[in-house]
Amino acid sequence: MKFGTKAIHAGQEPDPSTGAVMTPIYQTSTYWQKAPGDNQGYEYSRGTNPTRKALEDCLAALENAKFGLAFSSGMGATDAVMKLLQPGDEVITGNDLYGGSYRIFTKIFANYGIKFHFLDLSDPEIVSQYTNEKTKLVWVETPTNPTMQIVDIEAIGKITKAKNLLFVVDNTFASPYLQNPIDLGADVVMHSVTKYIGGHSDVVMGALMLNDEDLYKRLWFIYNSCGATPGPMDSFLALRGIKTLHLRMKAHCENGRAIAEFLKTHPKVDKIYWPGFTDHPNHEVAKKQMRDFGGMISITLKDADLQETFRIASNFKVFTLAESLGGVESLINHPATMTHGSIPKEVREKVGVVDSLLRLSVGVEDVEDLLEDLKNALA
Ligand SMILES: *Cc1c(COP(=O)(O)O)cnc(C)c1O
């Protein structure tokens, strides 16, 4: 089945009890048992719920995976993956990560004796260089947030396979429409469903998709034991959002391209980060592993201090100044003080997250209105 058909149908059969075409919201915490242990596959909703199950099967299908697990946030999903590790284990990851991922690694899991190496993964060979007998996991985000670096998933997958390391890709920025890391050699795909998959800025949710049954069982054990699982109403909203994922992504990409091209030559723009430009340092890798280049664009402003950057960021009428991304509405964000505020200044500035950086999540409004808004705000 092709992507759009899976987005609409995967995991969803008419409800067996009523024939309802849309998966019902099974707003129940518990399930009737005929005799102790004799149930219809559902016991308690922390572990399993029919609405969530439909969503998880759909999510798995979108990433060409056998198994899906939904979590109450992207961070809940990340937390579950890290709980596969033991004190003393080491993790290799990128040097430009979502702020919350950096925070959970350095402020939570470092306290449990796990060591993290934050590296520039644009040369995949660096993974071999830093691997020792304690290395267990490689965590990659691509495109990175917010500087849109591209990491070669297939090249890293070859190394992790040879060295028997678990390879996880945070695929939030690309969405499953643009990139499928499991096809390229990843073991687990992580998503913040909050972003493109949900797509309407009305749900906070995370997901893991994977093929290995033993690993799925271990992750399900953590999910059920630790309990960061989403409720049926949110699962329903995510399922509803997914039905238009392919349509939305086409529009995000189209608007993203028009806006990136407009900003590239704008006199107020210093640097622009968007993997669709042929002069982006990893454009060829992006072309190889992504279907298109998406609607996430970051820029730095010319001769702008923090005050001037704040002034411009507050000047928009159609773009909304807010954290998050991937919704139908366009958002503008100031990473240094908003999404990446938990990363120390000297660490973030090294990878380009400077005070004059703004990140755009280009929505699916009419592009003329978005261009007009940018023109006015930057004037
Ligand atoms: C938002 C985000 C997360 C965290 O997801 P939540 O749903 O906010 O917990 C992780 N990775 C990336 C790339 C994100 O953008």
Automatic annotation (TrEMBL):
GO biological processes: cysteine biosynthetic process via cystathionine; transsulfuration
Cofactors (names): pyridoxal 5'-phosphate
Keyword annotations of the record: Pyridoxal phosphate, Transferase
Cellular component terms per the entry's GO annotation: cytoplasm
Keyword Iron: no
Root EC class: transferase
SUPFAM superfamilies: PLP-dependent transferases (SSF53383)
Region called Disordered, residue ranges: 1-20
Known EC number: 2.5.1.48
Protein name (record): Cystathionine gamma-synthase
Keyword Transferase: yes
Native organism: Mucilaginibacter agri
Record lineage: Bacteria, Pseudomonadati, Bacteroidota, Sphingobacteriia, Sphingobacteriales
Family to which the UniProt record says this protein belongs: Belongs to the trans-sulfuration enzymes family.
Sample GO molecular function, one term: cystathionine gamma-lyase activity
